[in-house]
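About this split. The held-out portion is used to measure sequence recovery: a designer receives only the structure tokens and must propose an amino acid at every position. Recovery is the fraction of positions where the proposal matches the reference. Here is one held-out target exactly as it appears in the evaluation file.
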């Protein structure tokens, strides 16, 4: 008699993987994926209640009550912890050198995923249109001047009367679709090349069925969801005051504090070139690290990580300062 496992090909999931695949640090990618699915579901819910517009957007968020407000809380905490999980996943891959041949493609898709998730986080910050969102948009608009040939295109799509609808579409449709495509390619390459070995191990190390790993991942993702539910229940998502044009008094969310610190010192050039150099550096890692002097590469990777953390802490503890030359009524 044909079983459901045979009908849906579930038996194919029992392929062998390294025994360390069930460890928490190797399950971070799966946890991040579960967080992104939560974001999609809660985002659909909130999208049905959101009203696009300079004033109506803020009012529609502020007016959320009961279950709708709780869903926003869940969306908020899912965004923060999913982003944190993605960062930890990148750190784990960087420290273990799992980006080296033949896994360069996996790493590059992961770097583009990090950039896309960062863009989702930024646009999500903007579309609530409180003071923090307004100032984030003002910085984004200012950054278009550094986009080269794309500057005019971006300005025509994300400034003026079309800005609100364009940003909402980008946050809820364009970027999530791009993330899903990148995740699909990322997972396909992982299936082709296999889960990376621990440093110093070879392909002859102990193997376990992936179905066993799936059980462990289910426990991790279940715990992750319970954590988010508890946070959503007891810690409401913040919403700042309605924006006042011409004022710059807030700091960005924690993922962008290190950029804020660079902007303090270097102005808009720091805001633009800091992320660009980090992005290019991450892309170049598999090309530069050829397996020699691993200790030196790990040290360099950790030093850059510590620098980013130090910049973020400096920005968090510093007094907010204006970076843009705003005038009342202008952005």
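Reference sequence for scoring:
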């Amino acid at each position: 008699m044909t079983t459901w496992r045979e009908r849906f090909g579930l038996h194919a999931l029992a392929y062998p993987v390294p025994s360390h695949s069930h460890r928490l640090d190797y399950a971070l990618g799966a946890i991040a994926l579960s967080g992104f699915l939560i974001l999609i579901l809660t985002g659909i819910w909130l999208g049905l209640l959101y009203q696009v517009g300079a004033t109506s957007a803020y009012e529609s968020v502020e007016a959320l009550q009961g279950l709708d407000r709780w869903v926003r809380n869940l969306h908020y905490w899912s965004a923060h912890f999913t982003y944190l999980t993605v960062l930890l996943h990148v750190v784990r891959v960087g420290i273990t050198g799992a980006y080296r041949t033949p896994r360069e493609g996996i790493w590059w898709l992961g770097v583009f995923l990090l950039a896309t998730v960062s863009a989702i986080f930024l646009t999500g910050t903007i579309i609530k249109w409180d003071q923090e969102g307004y100032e984030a948009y003002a910085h984004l608009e200012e950054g278009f001047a550094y986009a080269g040939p794309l500057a005019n295109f971006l300005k025509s799509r994300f400034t003026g009367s079309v800005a609100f609808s364009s940003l909402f579409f980008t946050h809820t449709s364009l970027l999530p679709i791009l993330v899903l495509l990148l995740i699909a390619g990322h997972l396909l390459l992982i299936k082709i090349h296999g889960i990376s070995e621990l440093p110093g191990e070879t392909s002859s190390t102990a193997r376990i069925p992936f179905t066993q790993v799936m059980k462990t991942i289910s426990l991790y993702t279940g715990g992750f969801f319970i954590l988010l539910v508890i946070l959503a229940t007891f810690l409401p998502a913040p919403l700042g005051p309605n924006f006042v044009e011409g004022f710059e008094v807030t700091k960005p969310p924690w993922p962008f504090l290190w950029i804020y610190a660079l902007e303090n010192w270097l102005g808009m050039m720091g805001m633009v070139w800091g992320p660009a150099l980090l992005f290019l550096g991450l892309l170049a890692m598999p090309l530069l690290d050829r397996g020699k002097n691993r200790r030196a590469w790990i040290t360099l990777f950790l030093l850059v990580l510590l620098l980013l953390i130090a910049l973020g802490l400096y920005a968090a503890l510093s007094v907010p300062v204006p970076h843009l030359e705003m005038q009342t009524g202008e952005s």
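Annotator remark: Strands lie at 16-18, 207-209.
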